[in-house]
Write a sequence for this structure.
């Protein structure tokens, strides 16, 4: 029995031979004539299952199932209390099965299982609990500006949502899409990444176990070119929420434009991590390491461009490189592992290509820079640090999405701000300083949807999350989700009998 099989068995679950979609509360039957894609454990490179790819006809059936479910009203017209109960029951099931979900996600995403069990899985439960709370307090509006009339503004679910979940944090990010759309009574068709379907499928099953009516959420599997294109291009989809890369987002937007389908995009980043000379040095080191090497660097909010002020630059670089070399890289099932493999082979190759290109463009390699072949056939990349003199290098302008960081020295606040904003992305930023005035100035001037000051990766679900520029369209968040996944309706009611013009009648 392989290492991953042992871990899966210990967690009380099994890996299917063939992974299929989910429609109307049931798994899609295995079709030997369908195309099947390999699913691999990134820690060893071994195939653990095959994924049945859903073509356009299967996607159409999934969309039709979601539409029929919406029309029946079992969920779309369910009471707020009913939806709250289902979400809270599902959240508890997720917490009860945290180890199982962590192992399933580790099996195909390669993320350290200890991190998954302690942070990512609980976040999925938290997302459901949060929206359960929110729909209990959101209210409509009433206006009585015009004498004799009352105007009520209410919301109703938009209809059927197409949800595209990414591979880098499947459970956490898919659960946000699911919670945001279903909370307001929509039904959905979810496409997880073809690389990382297992944990998401298990979560959907848990939600139905918690009381979600069959057909409310349906899952289709396959590549973006086949399954994703069919879903994005469906004329019977009312909303599209996509988390992923900019290139694919352009294709989704083009398809959505054919039917004027509203889109919500959470895309990539190339975020600046600015360390001023008045910062708490040790806290800045700790936070900067977390910002780039969490999730093995495979996060859109990575602080992948470290900008450090000259007065502390030499000391910072030495300390940062020393700590980077000490990171524990290895089997993601090992609880001591801090940096796991890349999620799939092609991505490992892409990250290594970025490293080679950076070297060819003149970036100075301080540590790392190669695959970890000593760890077997897994998709490992050694945590890598470059020092650069120009922000125009591809390393500083393109999202690497791996354990690779650049460090650039700056002189003063103006240069730091200029470098931070010199990017086509604008998702997040980080600022390390003990000056309140400096922090407030940067908060106002940095082109980013979120700015963290003296802390890494903190998230308040009440606050909006999204990016400037090419980092996205729209925002995650409770009010923002309500705006996107519902239609507002104004109803004007006459109170009493206010006069009406008598067109076509003779004057009295």
């Amino acid at each position: 029995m392989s290492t991953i099989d042992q871990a899966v068995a210990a967690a009380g679950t099994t890996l299917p031979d063939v992974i299929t979609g989910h429609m109307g509360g049931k798994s899609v039957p295995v079709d030997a004539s369908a195309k099947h894609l390999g699913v691999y454990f990134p820690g060893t490179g071994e195939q653990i299952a095959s994924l049945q790819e859903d073509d356009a006809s299967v996607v159409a059936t999934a969309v039709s199932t979601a539409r029929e479910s919406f029309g029946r009203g079992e969920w779309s017209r369910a009471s707020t209390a009913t939806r709250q109960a289902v979400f809270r029951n599902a959240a508890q099931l997720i917490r009860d099965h945290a180890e199982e979900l962590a192992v399933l996600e580790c099996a195909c995403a390669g993320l350290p299982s200890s991190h998954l069990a302690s942070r990512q899985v609980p976040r999925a439960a938290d997302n459901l609990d949060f929206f359960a709370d929110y729909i209990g307090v959101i209210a409509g509006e009433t206006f009585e500006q015009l004498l004799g009339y009352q105007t009520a503004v209410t919301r109703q679910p938009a209809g059927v949502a197409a949800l595209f979940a990414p591979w880098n944090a499947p459970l956490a990010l898919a659960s946000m899409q699911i919670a945001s759309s279903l909370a307001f009574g929509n039904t959905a068709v979810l496409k997880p990444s073809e690389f990382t379907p297992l944990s998401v499928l298990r979560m959907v099953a848990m939600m139905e176990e918690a009381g979600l009516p069959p057909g409310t959420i349906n899952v289709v599997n396959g590549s973006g070119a086949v399954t994703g294109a069919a879903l994005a291009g469906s004329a019977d989809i009312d909303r599209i929420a996509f988390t992923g890369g900019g290139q694919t987002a352009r294709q989704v937007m083009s398809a959505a434009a054919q039917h004027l389908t509203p889109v919500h995009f959470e895309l990539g980043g190339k975020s600046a991590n600015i360390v001023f000379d008045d910062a708490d040095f040790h806290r800045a080191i700790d936070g900067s390491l977390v910002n780039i090497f969490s999730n093995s660097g495979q996060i859109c909010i990575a602080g992948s461009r470290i900008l450090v002020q000259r007065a502390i630059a030499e000391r910072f670089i030495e300390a940062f490189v020393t700590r980077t070399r000490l990171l524990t890289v290895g089997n993601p099932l090992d609880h001591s592992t801090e940096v796991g493999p890349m999620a799939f082979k092609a991505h490992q190759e892409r990250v290594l290509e970025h490293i080679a290109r950076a070297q060819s463009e003149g970036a100075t390699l301080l540590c790392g820079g190669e695959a970890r072949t000593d760890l077997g056939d897994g998709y490992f990349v050694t945590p890598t640090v470059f020092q650069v003199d120009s922000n125009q290098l591809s390393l500083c302008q393109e999202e690497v999405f791996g354990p690779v960081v650049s460090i650039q020295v700056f002189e003063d606040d103006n240069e730091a701000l200029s470098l931070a904003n010199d990017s086509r992305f604008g998702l997040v930023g980080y600022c390390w300083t003990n000056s309140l005035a400096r922090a407030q100035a940067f908060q106002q001037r940095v082109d980013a949807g979120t700015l963290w000051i003296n802390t890494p990766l903190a998230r308040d679900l009440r606050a909006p999350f999204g990016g400037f520029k090419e980092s996205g369209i729209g925002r995650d968040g409770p009010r923002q989700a309500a705006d996107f996944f519902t239609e507002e309706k104004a109803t004007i009611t006459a109170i009493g009998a206010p006069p009406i013009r008598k067109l076509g009648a003779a004057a009295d």
